[in-house]
């Protein structure tokens, strides 16, 4: 049995008894981990203004999609990583933004192809040694029930070395049970890759409908810590193009974290602040083999994933 401490932006659910972790202590731990990662990055002000103007002009039909993409590509060409990654990610979503009354997206394949893959490919698959792909089946596995929906892999000496980012995608209409099971599997993927490749941390994401929440898993004091980073909502209409501009700081923080993981991939477990975490393996209610308490703390039997059908 292995325990995973999930640290959310919202930390006042009260799922863990206060004598073990108060909401303020959970927030302290999350802030400590984010500070170690230098998480809060800021996009350049002048570049941000240019991107905002480009998206606004595109929305208002002052320039067409091609001209807006050329402007963003020229900006990206003049920049280094991670600013280049973010600018290319914004540009990659322009073709999907139409001034049409589109039906509600009901296909996971559509979400992955039109939104998830373009932005993840540019944020994380940023050079010749990184490959972002819609990989329902990892190269080393033939089991369709145990796979991410999207992954970014690092290659060394022309061969796949390890993943740096992967995620699961579900429709908004999916049941709550299916969403929880996907979150469960996401945590299992992260834990397995940390152990298999001796990584210091991995980035994960869960997309539900048009909303994507990013997480970071690492090991602190021999405890698996799953930290919520940020949430990004894909615009799906041209009228909402300007919304991409509001996420520039979050996107550059994600791209910078990916670069940090690439240069510091060796396991380096540090301590959590102050209070001991040895109590997190306290018994929790059971729900169909998945032991969890709302969304704050998950306990998973890493040897028994076969009991869950593919979802």
The unreliable regions are 274-311
Name the shape in a single word: globular
The string of secondary-structure elements, in order, is EHHHHHEEEHEEEHEEE
Largest sheet entry: 10 strands, mixed
Number of beta strands: 10
Any descriptors?
311 residues, alpha+beta, 10-stranded mixed beta sheet, 7 helices
What's the layout of helices and strands?
Layout: E1 2-7, H1 23-36, H2 45-59, H3 65-77, H4 83-93, H5 108-124, E2 130-133, E3 150-156, E4 159-170, H6 176-197, E5 201-208, E6 211-220, E7 223-233, H7 248-263, E8 286-287, E9 290-293, E10 297-300
Overview of this protein structure:
There is one protein chain. This protein is 35% helix and 22% strand. The protein is built from seven helices and ten strands. It has one domain. By secondary structure, the protein is α+β, with helices and mostly antiparallel strands.
Q: What's this, in brief?
A:
With 311 residues, the protein is of the alpha+beta class. It has 7 helices and 10 strands. Helices cover 35% and strands 22% of the residues.
